[in-house]
UniProtKB/TrEMBL annotation:
Pfam families: Glycos_transf_2. SUPFAM superfamilies: Nucleotide-diphospho-sugar transferases. Belongs to the glycosyltransferase 2 family. The chain crosses the membrane at residues 6-29, 283-303, 309-330, 342-359. The keyword Protein biosynthesis does not apply. This is Glycosyl transferase family 2. Keywords: Glycosyltransferase, Membrane, Transferase, Transmembrane, Transmembrane helix.
């Protein structure tokens, strides 16, 4: 039938798109940074915005304060917490003279807006070089500040890092969360290395205060509750001012969600910002995601109807060879090798979950960051 012939040729196009994308990822991760790290130790302000994070601050803040770096301050932002977050901050400040606390009061116009709290913290910071992470994050080494800040230069004012989630044994959700994080990082690292940075994660991100104020801070998207990291980077980052730092000592590790409901709520906030990206980035991301969905739909349809089934099987095998080759390289760089055996299953579950989240966001949208 003509319709199945059309679907077969569409399947070939989808395979080609997938191979191109995964080929780009492979090349990007094989490509070495040409920029040499500087030995200059810039004074750094580490900025942590916390809302009801008393427990996490007690556990993770010591790993920030124990960093092996000569000159840094820690700016702790209490964003209208209702727990003992402020008291925990004050208890640490009594022991460390490089801590500065910014206590944000509730203002109706900016209720639930992390960008407002971050802006106050940035204004209060002492140094021009800013390094951001979250209250539930832990640097994997004492050289986190050193590694991230060493990538600043006269030309590079934005440093995009990587922040994996902590590994948990015998948890499929943990593997799914980590795979989604790996895939997202594979994309934004690859695009940045190819000269088109489009996002970053606030768990591990650095830029200068000058860059922040030259861009008018978050003013262009202050009305959007999420996106203090990805929307800001999408707005200001380009090939000339941005560099990637994925040295293992530069990673920050975060605590993953414990159940599907909390993870889906988190991803709903993240996905809701994508529609505000630049048009070229929306097109690239939409094309990749659509090709993933069409691959599974068309593969099942063509095989079930025995339409050129031998050729279809060869194309499927080719696609998975390229997929595995690409992810073996990226997972090795980002220390997520244990996910490789589960790759096809994790990919299918992630695509299904993302489609469900996308449909849910059409009918209702998350309103604040916590």
């Amino acid at each position: 039938m003509l319709i199945f012939n059309i679907l077969f040729y569409l399947f070939i196009v989808v395979i080609l798109i997938q191979i191109i994308y995964y080929g780009v990822f492979f090349v990007a991760f094989k490509k070495q940074n040409t920029l040499h790290k500087t030995s200059k130790k810039h004074p750094v302000s580490v900025i942590i915005c916390a809302k009801n994070e008393a427990k996490n601050l007690k556990h993770f803040l010591p790993s920030i304060l124990e960093q092996d770096y000569p000159n840094f301050e820690v700016v702790l932002i209490n964003d209208c917490s209702s727990d003992k977050t402020l008291k925990v901050m004050e208890s640490f400040k009594e022991l460390h003279n490089n801590i500065k606390i910014v206590n944000v009061k509730s203002i109706e116009a900016f209720w639930g807006n992390k960008k407002y709290a971050l802006t106050l913290g940035i204004k209060a910071s002492t140094h021009n070089h800013l390094l951001f992470t979250d209250a539930d994050c832990k640097p994997v080494s004492k050289h986190w500040i050193s590694e991230m800040s060493s990538h600043f230069s006269d030309k590079k004012s934005i440093v995009i890092g990587y922040s994996p989630y902590k590994k948990e044994k015998k948890s499929f959700l943990n593997k799914l969360i980590r795979f989604e994080t790996l895939l997202t990082a594979t994309q934004y690292v690859s695009y940045a290395k190819m000269g088109s940075p489009y996002m970053a994660v606030g768990r591990n991100l650095a830029y200068t205060k000058d860059t922040f104020f030259e861009a008018r801070g978050f003013m262009d998207h202050m009305n959007i509750k999420s996106g203090d990291d990805d929307l800001f980077i999408n707005q200001i980052a380009d090939a000339s001012n941005t560099i990637i730092c994925i040295n293992q000592n530069s990673f920050t590790e975060s605590i993953p969600k414990k159940n599907f409901k909390d993870w889906i709520l988190q991803k709903r906030r993240h996905i809701s910002t994508a529609k505000h990206y630049k048009s070229k980035h929306k097109l690239l991301l939409a094309t990749f995601y659509a090709s993933q969905i069409l691959f599974y739909v068309l593969a099942i349809l063509l095989i079930s109807t025995l339409t050129y089934w031998k050729i279809v099987l060869i194309l499927i095998a080719l696609r998975y060879i390229v997929l595995f080759t690409s992810f073996i390289v990226t997972s090795k760089k980002l220390k997520e090798n244990d996910l490789i055996p589960y790759l096809p299953l994790l990919e299918l579950f992630l695509i299904t979950s993302q489609f469900s989240i996308f449909m849910k966001n059409i009918s209702s949208k998350p309103n604040h960051w916590k």
